[in-house]
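Quick one:
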Amino acid sequence: MARPSFHILPFTADLLPAAGALLAGRCLGDRLTLPALPAHFEEPAVAKAAIQASLDRDHARGVAAVDGNQLLGYLVGDLVIDAVWGRSAWVRLAGCASTPNQSPELARDLYAALAEGWVGSGCFTHFALMPSTNLALLQAWYSLSFGIEQVYGLASLDQLDLSQPPASAGVEIRRAVSTDRAALASMYDLVWRANVAPPVWGLHLPENDAELRGAYGDLVDDPDATVWLAFLDGESAGFQCYFPGEHSADSLLVPDNCTVLEVAGTHPQARGKGIGAMLTHRGLAYAYANGYRHCLADWRNANLLASRFWPSQGFRPAAYRLARRVDPRIAWGNHNL
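Output:
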């Protein structure tokens, strides 16, 4: 087999303009499949700033594949060390792009070069945010033992029928007010209980319960939050909370006029009555009436209820958080035996 004609080198600042052009081209291709994505990242200068934002994170570095003076592709990642993620490495959404005619196999070579340092630093949990629209690129990451952990979906409100709200006997949907603090706080565990259950088996730290309960209650007085509550026969049955989408240098998933569905849940005993659909309709119809044209939401792919429900409400996958966990015994295994 012929040896590749490129060399992999550390990513340096002089490569930023060429990398910006590559990312702009990738974003253009992404929008051909999912037009709801923001258009301004198709401008090389804007894409360059997104890559710079990735490089500005703590413990960030990158690698680049070059052939002579031509940049073929790059990969940028950063390390996160905290109580939630432990020691983890992240490739952000702006952290990977290549020339249009380049094989997605290049991503495998770039990952091997970049992740060697991560593993050498005792970082064995790796995440990569990748666009859902590039199936060949996703396949390259799957072949590196990555799998889909989180889905980021966009709903285009112009394309949804928000005229006729669904209804169900005994169900009331209304906007939360300050006196609903206790009702909302009581539902602080709906999401995490769903995500620690099979087949998700996600992490929840019980020592955070008091803080989490308080944060849920505080949403009723947050001026930026739009909270909807569902009641079944007078008892709290579910909720949804929306915020305005925030734009940053690397917010590749937030188009103009976008609201973000930050958190939502339905009591298990209230499921099957259309409450989730009623909450979603009310939330999206209200957002549309107030000038929003898109909604961003995310969910665990292994959460069977969520992964079936949100696409049924008009959310199309825009990106995936891919995850890989390297066997930590590689750190001490004696390879000379």
